[in-house]
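Session log. Operator J.P. requested a structure for one protein chain; no other inputs attached. Running the standard single-chain path with token output.
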Amino acid sequence: MVRFRAKLLDIAGIIHLSRVVSTLSKVAKTCVLRLTPDKVFFVLSEGRTGQSSGMRIWCNLEQGNFFDDYRIEGRDDSNQILLELVTEQLSRALRTALSAASVKIKLTNKHTPCLTLE
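Structure written below.
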């Protein structure tokens, strides 16, 4: 079973993550989110038009710089989770969370795997 849960208790971490995702959403419509025990990766391989430009953007974040609680259980020995997501949707959700005291992000399975922000 694959599990992921993370908490941001510091408003500075919420703001920083929101800015990173907002910047990425201006570059590409979708990205692959790669979660590992130590890092969070955003991998972009297409532009805003949906066309592959041959260019790839990797953004890796040390999870300890953002999250106060971070738990991951991958499917195999690599202990990683890969999830394709729409960058604008994540950016919008994080912008809404800017007024919150804390944010919990978890992997849920609502018809398909997705990230839920509380």
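Operator note: The chain is about 25% helix and 40% strand.
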